[in-house]
Amino acid sequence: MPTALITGASGGIGAVFARELADRQMNLILVARSQAKLEELATQLRKEYKIRVEVLVKDLLEPGAATAVFEAVSQKGLTVDLLINNAGFGDYGTFAERPLPKLTDMMQLNIIALVELTRLFLPAMQQRRSGSIINVSSIAGFQPLPYMSVYAATKAFVLNFSEALWAENRPLGIRVQALCPGPTKTNFFQMAEFPQSNRPGDEPDAASPEEVVRQSLKALENNESTVVTGGLKNQVIVNLHRFFPRDTLASAMEKPFRNLGSKN
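Below the sequence we write its predicted C-alpha cells.
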C-alpha cells in the first residue's frame, strides 16, 4: 500500500488531502504542530479506512525540522510515494509595517522547509523511478501582489521551482505539481490577518478545500505541472500578465488590496 506524507495536515487543505487519500487506500504520515488535532484526525482515518497513519508533531519553522521529519520516516522504515508540501501561511498589510519575524517565518515555512523536504525525499523517488510531489503554491504566485508582497513572492518561488522540477524529473517517471488555489474556504485569511468583514475565503465563489484537492489529484494523474483550481475567474487572474505590462498590473492590484484593509 503506497504512503503519502502531508505537511500542514491538521486542518484545511492538508486535512482534506489526508481524508481523500485515505479513501483511496493510501497510508499516511501527517505532519503539523498540533498534536491534538493530528491525533484526532489519525484516529478517525484509522478507524474508518483501516490504513496505517503515522503522526509526526513538528514545527517546520524550527532549524533542522525537515531533516528530523526525514529521519523519523526513515527510522520507521517507511517509503514516501507522495510528498505533499502543504504547510504555509500568508500575511496581509503594508510591507514596511509588518512584523519582521513573521515575514522571515513565512519565508522559512513557505520556501526553505518545502525545498528541504523535497531535496530529502526526491532522491529515493529517483532511485525507484516512481513517486509524486505536490507543492502548494497559489494564484498569488502569478503576479505581484501589493499588501501581500512577501507571500506572493514565496508562492512565485514555489511555482517556478515546482515547474522546473517537473521538467527535470519527468523522464524518471516522477510527477511534480504546483498546486495553485484561489480563495478557499479555510482559515488562511484569518491567519493572514485580513479584516474580519472582508475575507476572500468567505465569498460565495470561494472554493471548498474538497474541490481544490479533487482537482489537484486529477491533474496529478495526468502529470500536469501546474493546476489552477477554481473557476474561470482564477484562470483569468493567472493569465493577466500575458496581456498587461507588469507595472500596469501591479498598479491595478494596489488599490483593491489597499481597500481591503480600510473596510470594517
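The mean pLDDT is 93.
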